[in-house]
Write a structure and sequence with these properties.
Elements (H helix, E strand, L loop, with lengths): L2 H33 L2 H8 L2 H12 L2 H7 L5 H33 L4 H8 L2 H6 L2 H9 L3 H24 L4 H23 L9 H25 L1 H9 L2 H35 L4 H28 L1 H9 L7 H11 L2 H13 L3 H22 L3 H28 L3 H30 L5 H22 L3 H12 L1
Helix pairs in contact: 1-9, 1-13, 2-13, 3-5, 3-11, 4-8, 4-11, 5-6, 5-11, 9-10, 11-18, 13-14, 13-16, 13-17, 14-16, 14-20, 14-21, 15-21, 16-19, 17-19, 18-19, 20-21
């Protein structure tokens, strides 16, 4: 199968996987949010940084090294498998003993037991990391779809049943554990891959040399990605952590879905053409423009219609999260661009530059957080938007050099779609506030505003000949 056909097949099955898991996950989370309290979601959100750190330390970037390396044998996979497995037990042991200190940091005693139970997922997931890596390397997202969709259904049903029976925060804990266990069992069944009883030190050093820089980059990124949850959890009430987490999760729904679909396919695809800079630049540019074309209008429309959206989905108790959500939507527009710029460094094997950029960005982020914390929780949120904009110019420095595609050139390619999305959002806001708000219920407001906004965006995109729309039309015609 050609690279193009593999990519198209990958996009299709990756889309099925993401929309299936995101759709089912969204339904499950919505039901749980209507049953549970914001403070209970806040307790789980407080664990995000520690779960992320544990996962990054266990993988150590070795799985990404497996994906980008061209010639592998069974010893490569087995070596990384046993290292990850051993690492999962060590990291879990460390988390087990530091759990009381984490609980004391947040002043939430219940967190000690929650952490010790929930982090068992480290060990469960380590058993299936190589299976997922092998499927991703071969762009076999069909099998991944067959695994993830049933897993999230099983975990979701378990969580809902427990929530209805009054288990509170524990329904979220066990939902996650059951989902991980179901996925691991299925991956071992479908992939048929089994590790050899072998550990090649030379191969380990090769993958570790590349992966350790990504590991440190990942650790730094996870700490700062969850910095706002850490700070809000330390200085504010758990309910506000819940509001922030729900707002962030909802704005990441379109961003994460679209970005993850493209990222899963683009990294192995970029790796396959890593030595052809002209072709790599062309593919990168088209992917970047397409993602912004899909993400920007979705986020702007969701921000404009945030109040009826939250009330309809989560009930009145979640309305304090609306302004958080609207600010974070501005933050999310550039999120995919950060990822794709850094991917260029990965496929070029420059994990040292990846780490260097992460350190620079986090220094900037610390300065912004220290300043913005003086202005309360809204100061923190607006500060995150400023950090995202600054990160765009930092991330594009080296990738721009590799591809001869500077930050200014990327910005010029993105700004027409962003301006068009903002203009459509302003029109929809006017209609919603002046004409619709007084006559329509929340569901009608969402249907009217959403459909009208999408149609208006597509019509104006066609009028101004936005390249991503033209490319989508050509793809549909070829089908």
């Amino acid at each position: 199968m050609s690279l193009k056909k593999k990519a198209l097949s990958g996009v299709f099955w990756s889309s099925m996987q993401l929309f299936g898991t995101q759709g089912i996950g969204f339904i499950v989370t919505t039901i749980l949010a209507r049953i549970l309290l914001p403070s209970e979601f806040g307790l789980i959100a407080m664990l995000g940084v520690f779960i992320g750190l544990g996962t990054a330390l266990i993988n150590s970037g070795l799985t990404q090294s497996l994906i980008r390396t061209q010639n592998l044998d069974e010893e490569d996979y087995s070596t990384v498998f046993f290292f990850n497995l051993l690492g999962s037990f060590i990291i879990y042991g460390i988390i087990f003993f530091v759990a009381p200190f984490i609980a004391e940091f947040y002043n939430q005693n219940l967190l000690t037991l929650i952490i010790r139970v929930y982090c068992v997922t480290f060990i469960i997931n380590a058993f299936s990391a190589i299976q997922i890596t092998r499927l991703t390397k071969t762009m076999d997202f069909k099998t991944q779809t067959k695994v993830t969709v049933p897993s999230i259904i099983v975990g979701g049903i378990a969580g809902i049943i427990m929530a209805y029976n009054g288990y509170g925060v524990w329904s979220l804990v066990w939902s996650g554990i059951i989902q991980s266990l179901a996925a691991t069992i299925q991956l071992w069944y479908w992939t048929k891959w089994r590790p050899l009883l072998a550990f090649n030190l030379k191969k380990f050093r090769y993958h570790f040399h590349y992966g350790v820089k990504l590991m440190f980059s990942g650790v730094i990124d996870i700490v700062f990605t969850n910095a706002y949850t850490l700070i809000i959890g330390k200085f504010f009430m758990p309910a506000q952590v819940g509001f922030y987490n729900r707002a962030d999760s909802l704005q990441m729904l379109p961003v994460g879905s679209i970005s993850s679909i493209i990222t899963k396919v683009s990294f192995p695809m970029f790796s396959a053409i890593q030595y052809d800079d002209v072709r790599l630049k062309n593919v990168y540019k088209r992917i970047m423009q397409m993602v912004i074309f899909l993400v920007a209008p979705a986020l702007i429309l969701m921000a404009v219609l945030a109040e009826p959206l939250f009330r309809l989905l989560f009930t009145e108790k979640w309305l304090p999260a609306v302004p958080y959500f609207q600010i974070l939507c501005c933050n999310g527009i550039l999120y995919p661009i950060h990822s794709y710029n850094l991917q260029i460094l990965n496929v070029k094997g420059r994990s040292d530059l990846f780490l260097k950029l992460e350190i620079i960005k986090k220094i900037v982020a610390v300065l912004v957080i220290v300043i913005s914390l003086n202005f309360g929780i809204y100061g923190l949120l607006y500060g995150s938007v400023i950090t995202s904009v600054l990160a765009f110019f930092i991330n594009t420095h080296y990738s721009g050099k590799f591809l001869d595609y500077t930050a200014w050139e990327q910005f010029k390619d993105l700004v027409p779609t962003i301006i068009l999305s903002l203009s459509v959002g302003a029109i929809i806001y006017f209609f919603d506030q002046v004409l619709v708000n007084n006559f329509f219920y929340d569901f009608s407001r969402l249907i009217f505003g959403g459909l009208f906004g999408v149609l208006l965006f597509l019509a104006t995109s066609y009028l101004f000949k936005i390249s991503s729309l033209i490319e989508l039309i050509h793809i549909i015609k070829r089908k």
